[in-house]
Amino acid sequence: MRLRAVDVKLGYGDRVIVDGLDLGIEAGTVTTIIGPNGCGKSTLLRALGRLLKPSGGEVLLDGKRIDRMPTKEVAKILGVLPQAPTAPEGLTVADLVARGRHPHQTWYRQWSSGDELAVNEALSMTGLLDLGERPLDELSGGQRQRAWISMALAQGTDLLLLDEPTTFLDLAHQIEVLELVRRLHGELGRTVVMVLHDLNLAARYTDHLVAMRSGKVVAAGPPAEVLTEDLLAEVFDLAARVIEDPVAGTPMVVPIGSLPATGERARRNGALLKD
Amino acid sequence: MTPSSAYGPALRAGPTSWRLRPRPALTALVLLAAAVLLTGLGMRLGDIPMSLAEVARAVVGDGPDHLVVMELRLPRALTGVLVGAALALAGAITQAVARNPLASPDILGVTPGASVCVVAAIVATSSAAGGAGGTLASVGIPLLALLGGGVGALAVYALAWRGGLDGYRLVLVGIGVSVVFTNVKYWLLTVGDVNDSGRAMVWITGSLNGRGWEHVVPVAVALAVLVPATLVGTRSLGALRFGEETLTGLGVRPDLTRSLMILAAVLLAALATAAAGPITFVALAAPQIALRLAGAAQPPLVVSALTGAVLTGAADLVARTAFSPVELPVGVVTAVLGAPYLIYLLVRARRKARS
């Protein structure tokens, strides 16, 4: 178990979003966290990446408390790509990706040949070698997202946390990003944890699916086991058919319509029982 | 295929390695030469005007001019360039931390705090004990400026800190604190004796008149220590332009970086203000000029410091010669040059926001 959340309590100020949650990430897997808006999935990912300090419980990286490790050491093992990251105006792709080498550099070793190699590899892996000198703000959404992933790659970490890496991208670009993730996992053996909204894509590109609702893990396991019609009702208040994806063979969600919220359904069920 | 052109040439020797950036390096060399030249030109001026050659001869020789040049003219000229460098470096740091090109050490509370302290001392002591003015001026005022600057900065820092240091909040709190200090200063000036207020005004404007080695040494020491120190932190300072979460992900400690860098800026600005009074606009304008000269995305620290030195040195030359024999305080010239520049920046920022 490379990364673990143990009984974590997470929130912002007085607002508690996640309470008493446990989650373990196995080495060499792609894990995707799914759940409705506001269920705490991004909050959990931020805590796993030490961007948010738990108010209770702990996050362990390779068995050690992540908040007690020097942050620069963590940055050599664990890369985080936040949701909608911002870059300085006019920054070039090469400069952005080179920034990923930060944890490996010191004031007297700012641009070693190892750095240059890692940046070149990251650029070539994401197909951005030719765009190195282009300012980031001139790129398309898909290219920009690849550039950010490229920066995380240049960081050379075994673990990669991606918070909604496909937001604001059209379907073709979403596929492009997820195929990149699959290659990172397949070719480089990286461990990836991400948050996704598209359930069908999540099922297709994931080994391990974690479904959350109201700050709790409702189900976790291989997509075929987790993504069921009952779960969709329970987690998303969604009536749906789950059929086999004709291309990938993974579960595919075909929505029927929204259901009343769980609480209301429970009350109605109760009322029915009384009748 | 290697896109090495996207990174520029690298400088590698043993375990050390740097990215070589030719344009900032060249800019720095040119500015350094200009600063040395301006120091020389400044030393020509005085009761007995000298040519550059005479100045050079007086420095190396030991004729009667040697004493004049070494004890009066050199320290004055050096105070100018060093104070300019210190203010500009403080400005470059402040702008990077605040992520705002309009930020300057004024918003850190340093100059307003120093001004209140010095004005209070001048107004309070001089009318009561007329003779104390001389001693107060040479020893007391720099110390008071340092104290006031420190207190001002501490007030801003304490009020801006809220479980972390946010650049935007720092700017807002800084502006608020500055206004309070500035109004206290004006109140002191109005209640004080007219002559005292007049003397205080000269200090507030920022002047290099009569500056000696005792003014040079503290600023020189501060620069000698803090320039290398800030250069070590310059990578993290550059990273501050990214979002908070990206920074943490890269293993930068944003709050620590900001706090240490702000501390350096406060020390530089306070010591510079102690030596020459609050010379306006150098800290604001020099980093922005340096940025454009060096073709960089963020004010480069060394080029900013050198630009500040050249700007202040040049402003002092203008102040002393433009209305000769009347000498203006250097702060008047930097303000006259700086105000239009500030307006230009504001207009440009608005245009950009609209497009």
UniProtKB/TrEMBL annotation, chain A:
* Gene3D superfamilies recorded: P-loop containing nucleotide triphosphate hydrolases
Q: Where is the ABC transporter domain?
A: 3-239
Sorted alphabetically, which InterPro entries does this protein's record hold? Answer: AAA+_ATPase, ABC_transporter-like_ATP-bd, ABC_transporter-like_CS, P-loop_NTPase, Siderophore_ABC-ATPase
One Gene Ontology cellular component term attached to this UniProt record is: plasma membrane
Query: What superkingdom heads the lineage?
Result: Bacteria
Q: Where in the cell is it found?
A: Cell membrane
Q: Which Pfam families match?
A: ABC_tran (PF00005)
Give the membrane topology, semicolon-separated if more than one: Peripheral membrane protein
Q: Which GO terms describe its biological process?
A: iron ion transport
Record keywords:
ATP-binding, Cell membrane, Ion transport, Iron, Iron transport, Membrane, Nucleotide-binding, Transport
Q: Name one GO molecular function term.
A: ATP binding
Q: What is this protein called?
A: Iron complex transport system ATP-binding protein
TrEMBL record, chain B:
Q: Where in the cell is it found?
A: Cell membrane
The UniProt entry lists membrane topology as:
Multi-pass membrane protein
**Which Pfam families does this entry report, sorted A to Z?**
FecCD (PF01032)
Q: Which family does it belong to?
A: Belongs to the binding-protein-dependent transport system permease family. FecCD subfamily.
One of the entry's Gene Ontology molecular-function terms is: transmembrane transporter activity
Protein name in UniProt: Iron complex transport system permease protein
Q: Name one GO cellular component term.
A: plasma membrane
Residues annotated as transmembrane: 77-98, 110-130, 136-160, 167-188, 216-240, 260-286, 328-347
Database matches in InterPro entries: ABC_BtuC-like (IPR037294), ABC_transptr_permease_BtuC (IPR000522)
Q: Does the keyword Acetylation apply?
A: no
Q: NADP as a keyword?
A: no
GO aspect biological process, one term: siderophore-iron import into cell
| Domain of life, per lineage | Bacteria
Q: Which UniProt keywords apply?
A: Cell membrane, Membrane, Transmembrane, Transmembrane helix, Transport
